[in-house]
Amino acid sequence: MKHITNYKPSDFAELLNVSVKTLQRWDREGILHAKRTPTNRRYYTYDQYLKFKGLDNHVDRKIVIYSRVSTNNQKDDLANQIEFLKNFANAKDIIVDEVIKDIGSGLNYNRKKWNKLLEECMENKIDSILVTHKDRFIRFGFEWFERFIGKFNTKIIVVNQ
């Protein structure tokens, strides 16, 4: 599976959490060679990122159902979300590898299961995340998180727009 995204040095440096100067030094020293445009400008690819991080051999990426409610009193709603998403997946011939049930506020960024899911996205282990509504994933900033995990070739499928 090839990812076609090309990164400017500043974006790639941010992805690796290093400076652009470090990337330039690595290029000179042969640690991480930059690719070059016809006008000799540096750029990097997503495949280079995966290889550098040692993640280039992850072939089996998971499809995950993520369901969340705010309180224990809403466990019936949690079960309904999961059932709805399983039916959706079956109708679309999507094989679900994991179901994540989370109880906690959509405003809380310290949910253990949610953070573990984000880490797995950054490790290129997740192909798709199925959610019933945007706010089941996160209450505010959904588009930012969608764009962020999209950098790791993970997509969020919102079933009820």
TrEMBL record:
What Gene Ontology biological process does one annotation of this record name? Answer: regulation of DNA-templated transcription
A Pfam family this chain is assigned to: MerR
Residues of the HTH merR-type domain: 6-48
Q: What positions does the domain Resolvase/invertase-type recombinase catalytic occupy?
A: 62-161
Q: InterPro entries given for it?
A: DNA-bd_dom_put_sf, MerR-type_HTH_dom, Recombinase/Transposase-rel, Resolv_N, Resolvase-like_N_sf, Transpos_IS607
GO molecular function terms here? DNA binding; DNA strand exchange activity
Q: Please state what the protein is called.
A: Uncharacterized protein
**Originating species:** Clostridium saccharobutylicum DSM 13864
